[in-house]
Backbone:
């Protein structure tokens, strides 16, 4: 049996899935923001009640804890050490009151241009000591090409820290500002996350669950619990990804498709290319801050079942505000669900209250209640459709860097639309786009299903300058000497091998075939008309996927 | 989070799968390290900076600016169409108000491509800026345009294309042609008979440094621009004036390029040359991007700046100061062309052009009509070591009825005569572009 829990902002969902019988238990509860632990334990107990917990072979948990801590600024005082070298003024990248900008620089080829100012580091550290700072983050420019400066900072901090995050361990990707921010937030949530995890483990033990635990990430994959303790920032924004993985498990998606997760306040939109969810290459943004946390591409707009209907300059609009629940559910302002109720598209809770609200609002305009309800529904559909078109346009207009991709690039044209969430079935009846619309079974707990069935994901990039005879894979700590003849084939093989070894060692469950090379390039480097070696870059990943499908 | 003062569009097209030859300086990874630097700086996360995908230039886009012999597809590859398309995308973004400024970081470059194209010269096949300017004039109301070419090599192609055009001011700053390819760009080259003073050449001595460039901008370029009052300013942003460039002898810096850009305030910049791809381009491009976005670039410095850069000698400073008067005279009081034909007749110019990259020799007879109502009909007969005689006819933007009629008369005559391999008609008045091949 596989257990999945998604602790979301409003609801916490849990499912228990049997490898043969499919979903055998599901449970939904309101999330107690101030006591996530209680929420999780309640969900665990309820969803497993009546079942033999010893049969559970895996537990996957998606939690909003780190996200909330960052968004609500419940962060531990963290010192950030950055060294930037030439470029944008590094003072732009300070976070919190304890950012220390250290002289020192490494260029884009990984050469040290200026050594670190160790005197300043010592001075900064004594200041941190006086302020009682126990968690630190180190991010230096081009540390993914040469990590010595980050290592030197970490060494200088030594055992005065409970934890130090080094930027190059988070991702192999370039982007110094994202590296600094991601490292900072990783350290700032490190303690709160780890004590939460300790409590969860205690809770699981009490219930008698001994299966391995994995944590959901924003890219729709999982990481082993032990790994997550070091990179808690990777657990942010996993909720939307869990829903997307749920749809994958519930439907057999093969074409270019649109996924709509229609909730109470918002609709999340995701795009699939040839059946695979698109990944945000650079990393997701949290509260407007770009990070290196890989995520499934997902856009949220302010249209949901409880989005309030308003009349603005004689025009009927819906959302983006939510003034409590819809009237059918005891609210005071008519919302989208009330319009759907009025039109007879659904019969949700107190339909009489919906009619009351729609009629009252219609009186304020010159419209009949029927017209008003229809206009509200049409407005919502148009809003969603416009946003889908905008996203598709952005994806199809995304820059490419080779002539081959310019000329032969694939254009995404969705053939199917999958709807999940509360009002999904209702909207599926009125969204007539000439596109096939599908509403999978059990969509109400798609997020927990996605959590339960998500596989491991991972990404890494190998970088080699054969002229210097050096090869590195920054985020898994590989640095090796290679010969001048080191080839792209060898680099690809090494990328696979080292990634696999790292994953096995770290407790990931993975088969060899799961590691795919997604980018691979070799440039001949020329100095004054003479070949000076090759610049090799190999990116590989373990793609998001599910361990089993639930559709027939 | 950083927010750009000017909304900036970046068209980044490095053409990672195209090069002239395996060891050629204009090669695949020319922009690889620039991309590394821009990504590491987080440029694309800055609010107000948008990355744009290039268009692909069409045959019509190219025929608007060039006579391609025997035809467009024979002298271009997809890489050229995308590079030119990158410039077009940058122009569209600015002209449509999507952004305030745009920088097309594209390759291959284009500023050595002339009106007639038989092949590649100076690493260029088609002229990205010229194609962009004619696109702008065809699709928007803009007429007065200034191009400031800050590549180290004289922008002889752009000069040739706008030689007869009084509405396009072309200013080129470059290493003196007596010391560097293509050998032209002297003070006496100042525009055709109908456009005197609209081509301005500023040949700078080797080892000109930050001071010399900034003096040239402040004392020569800006006063001329102030008088010309262009509707838009375009910068041919070559980066081979850098002190580390392997194929030139100048002494300019990343910080200097950023400062120059900040003073020039181009609406659109298009990358040209620049072959110090590790030591200069990442920093120069970053400097230009920040300057165009209106952001602080004071922290940009090359890793070897302190050891390898030195300010210019006094001798060079004096030499550049002496250029000021003749340069300003060329614009404000240009000597008239003594050989200019009377009204209604053609002025003839003989040209021999060498295509260094492809080893082609071209022989040209260029005729420009003296016309009091428009900038004059252009007629060119051209033959080369790879093409038998060809003809190009250009009826200019806002061309008069007489020039239009005369243009078609010449076209019919050339086609009927039957001894030309290709006859191209570029009719800017009726927006008609046709080619007759034999």
Residues:
């Amino acid at each position: 049996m596989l257990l999945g829990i998604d602790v979301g902002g409003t609801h916490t969902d849990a499912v228990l899935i049997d490898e043969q019988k499919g979903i055998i238990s599901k449970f939904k509860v309101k999330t107690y923001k101030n006591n996530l632990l209680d929420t999780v334990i309640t969900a665990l107990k309820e969803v497993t009640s009546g079942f033999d917990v010893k049969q559970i072979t895996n537990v996957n948990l998606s939690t909003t804890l780190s996200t909330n801590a960052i968004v609500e600024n419940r962060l531990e005082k963290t010192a950030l050490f950055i060294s930037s070298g030439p470029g944008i003024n590094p003072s732009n990248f300070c976070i919190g009151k304890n950012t220390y900008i250290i002289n020192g620089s490494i260029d884009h080829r990984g050469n040290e241009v200026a050594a670190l100012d160790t005197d300043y580091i010592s001075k900064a550290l004594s200041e941190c000591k006086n302020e009682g700072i126990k968690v630190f983050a180190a991010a230096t420019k081009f540390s993914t090409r040469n990590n010595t400066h980050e290592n030197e900072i970490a060494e200088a901090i030594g055992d005065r820290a409970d934890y130090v995050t080094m930027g190059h361990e988070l991702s192999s990707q370039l982007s110094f500002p994202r590296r600094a921010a991601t490292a900072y937030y990783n350290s700032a949530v490190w303690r709160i996350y780890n004590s939460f995890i300790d409590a969860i483990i205690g809770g699981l033990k009490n219930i008698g669950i001994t299966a391995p635990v994995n944590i959901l990430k924003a890219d729709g994959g999982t990481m082993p619990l032990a790994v997550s303790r070091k990179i808690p920032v990777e657990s942010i924004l996993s909720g939307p990804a869990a829903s997307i993985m749920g749809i994958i498990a519930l439907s057999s998606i093969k074409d270019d498709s649109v996924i709509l997760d229609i909730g109470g306040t918002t609709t999340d939109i995701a795009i699939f290319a040839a059946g695979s969810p698109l990944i945000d290459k650079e990393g997701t943004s949290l509260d407007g801050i770009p990070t290196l946390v890989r995520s499934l591409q997902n856009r949220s707009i302010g249209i949901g079942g409880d989005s309030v209907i308003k009349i603005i300059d004689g025009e009927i609009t819906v959302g983006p505000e939510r003034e409590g629940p819809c009237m059918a559910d005891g609210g005071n302002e008519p919302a989208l669900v009330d319009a759907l109720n009025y039109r007879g598209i659904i019969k949700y809770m107190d339909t009489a209250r919906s009619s009351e609200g729609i009629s009252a609002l219609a009186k304020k305009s010159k419209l009949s209640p029927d017209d008003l309800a229809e206009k509200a529904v049409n407005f919502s559909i148009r809003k969603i459709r416009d946003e889908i078109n905008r996203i598709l346009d952005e994806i199809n207009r995304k820059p490419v860097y080779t002539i081959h991709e310019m000329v032969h690039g694939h254009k995404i044209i969705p053939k199917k639309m999958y709807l999940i969430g509360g009002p999904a079935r209702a909207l599926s009846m009125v969204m007539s786009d000439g596109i096939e619309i599908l509403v999978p079974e059990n969509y109400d707990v798609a997020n927990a299903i996605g959590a339960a069935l998500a596989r491991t994901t991972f990404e890494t990039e190998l970088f080699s300058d054969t002229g210097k005879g050096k090869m590195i894979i920054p985020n898994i700590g590989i640095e090796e000497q290679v010969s001048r003849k080191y080839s792209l084939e060898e680099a690809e093989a090494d990328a696979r091998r080292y990634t696999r070894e790292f994953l096995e060692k770290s407790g990931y469950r993975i088969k060899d075939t799961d590691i795919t090379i997604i980018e691979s390039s070799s440039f001949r480097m020329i100095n004054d008309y003479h070949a000076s070696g090759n610049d090799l870059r190999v990116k590989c990943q373990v793609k998001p996927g599910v361990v089993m499908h639930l559709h027939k | 989070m950083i927010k750009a003062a000017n909304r900036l569009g970046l068209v980044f097209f490095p053409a990672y799968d195209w090069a002239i030859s395996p060891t050629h300086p204009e090669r695949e990874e020319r922009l690889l390290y620039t991309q590394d630097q821009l990504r590491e700086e987080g440029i694309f996360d800055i609010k107000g900076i948008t990355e744009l995908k290039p268009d692909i230039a069409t045959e019509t886009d190219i025929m608007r600016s060039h006579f391609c012999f025997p035809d467009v597809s024979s002298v271009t590859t997809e890489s050229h169409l995308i590079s030119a398309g990158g410039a077009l995308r940058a122009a569209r973004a600015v002209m449509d108000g999507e952004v305030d400024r745009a920088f097309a970081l594209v390759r291959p470059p284009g500023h050595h491509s002339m009106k007639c194209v038989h092949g590649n010269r100076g690493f260029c096949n088609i002229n990205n800026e010229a194609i962009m300017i004619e696109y702008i004039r065809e699709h928007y109301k803009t007429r007065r345009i200034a191009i400031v070419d800050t590549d180290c090599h004289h922008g002889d192609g752009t000069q040739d294309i706008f030689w007869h055009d009084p509405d396009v001011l072309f200013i080129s700053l470059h290493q003196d042609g007596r010391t560097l390819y293509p050998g032209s760009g002297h003070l006496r080259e100042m525009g055709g008979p109908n456009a005197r003073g609209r081509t301005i050449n500023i040949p700078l001595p080797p080892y000109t440094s930050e001071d010399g460039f900034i003096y040239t901008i402040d004392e020569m370029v800006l006063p001329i621009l102030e008088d010309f009052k262009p509707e838009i300013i375009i910068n041919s942003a070559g980066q081979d004036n850098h002190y580390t460039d392997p194929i030139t002898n100048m002494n300019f810096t990343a910080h200097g390029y950023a400062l120059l850009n900040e003073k020039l305030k181009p609406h659109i910049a298009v990358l040209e040359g620049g072959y110090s791809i590790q030591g200069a381009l990442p920093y120069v491009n970053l400097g230009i991007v920040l300057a165009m976005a209106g952001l602080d670039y004071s922290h940009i410095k090359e890793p070897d700046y302190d050891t390898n850069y030195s300010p210019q000698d006094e001798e060079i400073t004096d030499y550049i100061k002496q250029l000021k008067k003749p340069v300003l005279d060329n614009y404000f009081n240009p000597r008239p062309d003594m050989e200019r034909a009377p009204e209604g007749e053609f002025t003839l110019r003989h040209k021999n052009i060498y295509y260094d990259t492809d080893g082609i020799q071209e022989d040209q007879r260029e005729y420009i009509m003296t016309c009091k109502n428009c900038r004059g009909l252009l007629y060119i007969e051209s033959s080369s070591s790879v093409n038998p005689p060809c003809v190009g006819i250009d009826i200019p933007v806002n061309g008069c009825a007489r020039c239009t009629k005369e243009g078609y008369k010449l076209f019919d005559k050339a086609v009927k005569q039957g001894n030309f391999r290709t006859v191209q008609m570029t009719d800017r008045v009726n927006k008609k572009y046709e080619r007759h091949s034999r």
